[in-house]
């Protein structure tokens, strides 16, 4: 009888702890998965897709902003992630071109609104290229309601151009403007491969527009990172390396607790040519958080 009571007490304590964690915690990731290139040797998509998808499940990531996702990769990930749903379109319209999709735990979140715009002088024009960009670039966004807590927040995900210096600067200004226009003062998380260093102008533009870099906002003991995110399949980690993948946030009620760069490497095998950035957030209090 005594053992039975202890077991029940332990179970109830665990359930209470889990409920509290679920209520206050929100884990997100920025994940450039590397497009499906046949030239990637041992790191072709076929060798990585299950490992990569498993990492999202294993780390209990609630919302993932992914980049370089082709339609076939999107389908593969959805097959491996039955508890998630995805939102987004290809950058050339419909199913064409790379997506910057948002994957979310479908039982936890309700989608209140969502859309995609292009990083160009004509944001609503499908497949439009901006400034000196080599390719069309997009932003996919969603307004979520967290069914556990009732809190609502916006999630934006993007991939800046890899060549256009002016495009990256103008893209930063445009996305900051659009966040204010769409989300107002509500909590926002922005993920993406920004193809820019922390000391470069696009990063400064985002910071000047009240978007906070989770890495910079947390003390050293709350961060786990090799110091860079793009690995270029380089086993030796040579050359000048720095962060180009970020998780930003703004608005009241949401604050980061922990930051991790998942350095997924097994010898010559990599989870992607970018290491994903995983950030755990907490809701500060129900009054500060927008509810609906």
From TrEMBL:
The keyword 4Fe-4S appears for this protein: no
Keyword Ribonucleoprotein: no
Annotated GO MF terms: endonuclease activity
Domain Endonuclease/exonuclease/phosphatase positions: 30-274
Swiss-Prot/TrEMBL keywords: Endonuclease, Hydrolase, Nuclease
Family annotation (InterPro entries): CCR4/nocturin_mRNA_transcr (IPR050410), Endo/exonu/phosph_ase_sf (IPR036691), Endo/exonuclease/phosphatase (IPR005135)
A Pfam family it matches: Exo_endo_phos
Top-level taxonomic group: Bacteria
Record-linked CDD domains: EEP-1
PANTHER family in the record: CARBON CATABOLITE REPRESSOR PROTEIN 4, ENDONUCLEASE_EXONUCLEASE_PHOSPHATASE DOMAIN-CONTAINING PROTEIN
Protein name: Endonuclease/exonuclease/phosphatase family protein
Higher taxonomy: Bacteria, Pseudomonadati, Bacteroidota, Flavobacteriia, Flavobacteriales
